[in-house]
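Human:
I keep going back and forth on a fold encoding question. Comparing notes only helps if you start from a blank page. Show me how you would write down a chain together with its backbone fold. Write it directly below this note and I will take it from there.

Assistant:
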Amino acid sequence: MAGTIRVLHVDDDPDFTELTATFLERENARLSVTSATDTREGMRRLDESDIDCIVSDYDMPGQTGIDFLDSVREEYTELPFILFTGKGSEEVAADAISAGATDYIQKELGTGQYTVLANRITNSVEQHRARRRSERANRRRRQTLTRITDGFVEMDADLTVTDVNEQTVELTGLSRETLLGMNYRADIAEADDNPSIEGYEQVIETGEPQTVEALSDINEGRWIEERIFPTEDRDGVYVYFQDITERKERERKLQTQTRRLQGVLDSVQAALWMRDTENRFILANQNYRDLFDIDSEIDLAGVDVAELFDQETVDRLRETDQRVLSRGEPIKVEEEVETAYGMRAYLARITPLFDDDGEVFATAGAAVDITERRERERTLTALHTAAQKIEQSEDEQTVYKTLVETAENVLQFDLVAVDIERDGYLVQEFWRYNSEGAGCLEKTSLESDDTFAARAYNRQETITVDDLREVDTKTADDDYRSALTVPIGRFGTLQAASSEVGAFDEYDREFAELLVEHARVKLDQLAMASDRRT
C-alpha cells in the first residue's frame, strides 16, 4: 500500500525519540515521525495532526503508556497504538492488550529493534486502512441493497414463467417478452440437481414456503436468495428474489477476518477470552483452550462456563465476571488455578465491554502465567535469608556449610559440592549428594585444566553444561548429564551436577552466582581478619 505513514512517538527521553525517528525513517521511507516528550504534548500533536499510528513508552512522568492509551481511545477508538517500552513484564503486556493496544514491543539493545518496530507500524496501519476501506464499501453496499426491491416471478406447476415484474427484468438483464413462456427446467437450469428447482417442487408438493440461496442460473457468478410461496390453488409458485452476491462476499470476508483474528489471538502468549453477561463464551484463544485442556474442535461460542468447569471454578468465574459487570470497570485478579499443567499462578485483567448505548454486554479477559515469577521471588527471599546467615558467620566452615545447604534446599540442586583451593589443588571438603554412590573427584590439580572445576577456577568464570556426554571433559561420574560450576573467587568453586540433561537454566546460574558472591565477600572479610591477627 503506497502513501506516507505519519507516526507519533511519545517518550520522555528526547535523545531516544530523536534516535528512534532517525532509524525508523531510515528503515522505511514511507514513515514520517513526529516526537513528543510527554503525554500532554502527545495529545496536542495528535489533535493538531493527521496521525496514522502512535508509538509510546510505558514508564513516563505523570502518565504511564497505558494511561495515555486510555486517553487516546476516548477520542480515537481505532487508531493503531504500539507500546514500545523497556519495562518488560507479563503484567504490562497483559494491561496493554486488555486496554486495546495494537501491539507491544520491548526495547532492546542494537538497531535491529527499529526494523521490527518499522514493520509492526507499517502492518498495523495498512490493516487499519484496509478495515476502514472495507467498512466504507460495506456501508455503500448496504445503502444500495436498501433501495433495491425484490424481483418477482410467477410459474405454473410445470415451472413455466407466467409473469414477472420490472425489477426481474433489471436483475436478469432479459426482457419481459423473453422471460414469459420460458420453462425453468428446460430453458434456464444448468444442472439436474438444481437447488432452485428442488425448492419449487417441494413447495408445490407440501404447500410450505421455503427460502433457497443459490448461484444464479442466468447471471453467472451471482448469488440470489429466493423466497418461494405456493400459489392459491397450489398449481404453481410465486418467487420473490434478490441479488445477495454482496452479502455472500461480506460473509466470506467476515469468515476470513474471523479466522485471521483467531489466528492473531492464538499467537498471543496470554490466555484471552470473552464472555457475555450470562457467563457464556463469545470466544477464547488457543492458549486459553490449552490452559484448561479444551478441545480445539469445540465451538465455544454460546457455551456456558458450567459446561466446561467444576462447580468451584464456575462459582469463582461467575463471581469475578459479576464484579466487573456491576462496577463497569476493569479489575485485576491474581490467583492459583488448577490447569492441564497442574496448579499454576496467574495474573488476569478482566475488562467490561460496552455497546453503543453504553451498556455492558460482555467481559474480556487476559491472563498471564506468573508461576515462575512467584517462584523466583520466593527463591530471592530465601537467598536473602541465606546471605544474612553467611554475613553472620564467624568462620569459613560455616560459610561453606551454608553455601552447600542453600544450594541444595533453596536452589533445589541434586548434587552439590564445594572444592577449596589448597596448594595448587581443588580439594572437595563440603558436599551434599542426594544420589547414593555418586562419584566425586576428591582432589583436582589446577594445572591440568581438564575438569570444569579447574577450568572455572582458573578462568574465574561460571561454566554451565547442558549435556556432559557431548563434551570432552573429565567428570566424576558417568551418570552426571549436566553441570554448573561457579568460582568462589580465590577460595575455590561451587559445583552442582544432575542426572538430567539441561537441568540448569539461566535463573539457576543467576541465583547460584548471587549466592556465591555473598560467600566470596564474607570469605574475603574472614581472611583479612585472620591476616591482621597474625
Q: What stands out?
A: Residues 144-148 have pLDDT under 50 and may be disordered.
